Amino acid sequence: MGLREFAFRRMRYELFSWAESTVAAPGIGADRLAPLAFATASYGRFVRGDLDHAMALAEQSRALERQLRLPPCGLSARTMANVAYYRGGADRAAYFAEQMLDTARRGGDEARLVHALYMTSVGLASGARIEDSRRLADEAVRIAERTQNRRRWRPPCMPTPSRSPTPTRTTR
């Protein structure tokens, strides 16, 4: 593993640790960012292979979104889709991936939408839904080419900043 990959993974694991500390804080369930913290901790558990705990945290995130009447941020659905794919449940995984995709479509951020289209496409292909997969992959490519693959996005469950930064374009 190269230094860049090591640093990237190390930073993500630190973020996951912060999320886990946050969800353990007393009274966290009343905070409007709680669902995002639970979803982040959930994804961290998934990438470390703790699938049962990942699903439990993702379910808590979704329950808090409903309780707090917040739009879904999509990360819990992403985690649930990944866990289901990993466990061989292509149909169940597609269900969660399509929820993630729906959230991305409503969120208005095209970089996030490209990722959700790509991930859902790969998952549908693994479940032998080839035409649906191809349609989503083609859409992802069209959007990525048009936007030059912008990378900045804000989950819909995050508060809107008072001053929104201008998205940057990256070329590769």
How would you portray this structure in words?
This protein has a single domain, classed as Tetratricopeptide repeat domain (Serine Threonine Protein Phosphatase 5, Tetratricopeptide repeat), CATH 1.25.40. Residues 151-156 and 158-172 have low confidence and may be disordered. It has helices at residues 3-23, 34-47, 51-67, 75-86, 90-107, 110-126, 130-147. It is mainly α.
Would you report the number of β strands? 0
The count of helical stretches stands at 7
- Can you give the mean pLDDT? 84
Overall body shape: globular
Major sheet: none
> Could you list the spans in which at least 5 consecutive residues all have pLDDT below 50?
151-156, 158-172
Number of self-contained structural domains: 1
Helix/strand/pairing category:
mainly alpha
Summarize the structure.
The protein is mostly helical.
Topology:
Blueprint: H1 3-23, H2 34-47, H3 51-67, H4 75-86, H5 90-107, H6 110-126, H7 130-147
Features:
Serine Threonine Protein Phosphatase 5, Tetratricopeptide repeat, disordered C terminus, mainly alpha, globular, 0% strand, single chain, 172 residues
